[in-house]
Design brief:
It contains 8 helices and no strands. By secondary structure, it is an all-alpha fold.
């Protein structure tokens, strides 16, 4: 018997949520401390005069103002150029939901930033990483919308690779700059992936409902 797409998404979403909850509990218990220190130290030893500006660039493109600018440009294209109304609404819900989720979880865990040198200015709390969440949801939802619109598998593969590189580079930059523990990045990726699955499930449900009504 063929397993439906919706069932696969439900199972994957549940696994991601459980993984995030377990990560959060372990963070609260201090079980990630040694791992965080080891990986952070390893990455900090890779700092160099040519790599630091690149990492600061990723900090900039993951900042609130830059993300808002990118989102507005994407919304303009979706709504006014391609006339994809549902995609526009989906994009807004995905990004606002991610922001609310990030702020709520940061307040809930209230984890302090790493000790040591911070190469960029930061405020508030550390877990989960908002930059990691921003990049995962922004480029993830953009990739999802492109996949439903593009026909060439080669172009899809190129965009998938680019999105993956951007998301991973953003996470790496936060550790490199000394403003996040590695487990903050892990937590950000897990909860963002869960939220992304929720968006995908809503899309599948919406399409099924429209097909039935037609």
């Amino acid at each position: 018997m063929k397993v439906s797409v919706k069932l696969k998404l439900y199972v994957l979403g549940l696994l991601l949520l459980i993984s995030f909850v377990c990560t959060g509990i372990l963070v609260e218990m201090g079980k990630f401390s040694e791992f965080d220190k080891w990986l952070s130290s390893f990455i900090h030893h890779k700092r160099s005069s040519y790599l630091t500006p690149i990492m600061k660039f990723f900090d900039f493109i993951g900042s609130t103002y830059c993300v808002i600018g990118i989102c507005l440009a994407i919304l303009f294209y979706l709504y006014f150029v391609t006339k994809r109304r549902f995609a526009s609404v989906l994009f807004i819900v995905a990004m606002i939901g991610e922001r609310l989720l990030s702020e709520g979880l940061k307040y809930l865990f209230s984890r302090s930033r790493p000790d040591g040198s911070h190469l960029v200015e930061v405020d508030k709390h550390s877990f989960p990483s908002q930059h990691a969440m921003n990049s995962f949801v922004l480029y993830g939802i953009l990739l999802f919308l492109l996949w439903t619109h593009l026909k060439s598998n080669k172009i899809k593969a190129v965009f998938s690779l680019l999105a993956s590189i951007l998301i991973l580079a953003m996470g790496f930059s936060r550790i490199y700059l000394g403003v996040h523990h590695p487990s903050d990045i892990l937590g950000g990726y897990l909860i963002s992936a869960f939220w992304f699955i929720v968006i995908m499930l809503y899309t599948v449900h919406y399409k099924e409902k429209n097909k039935m009504s037609n």
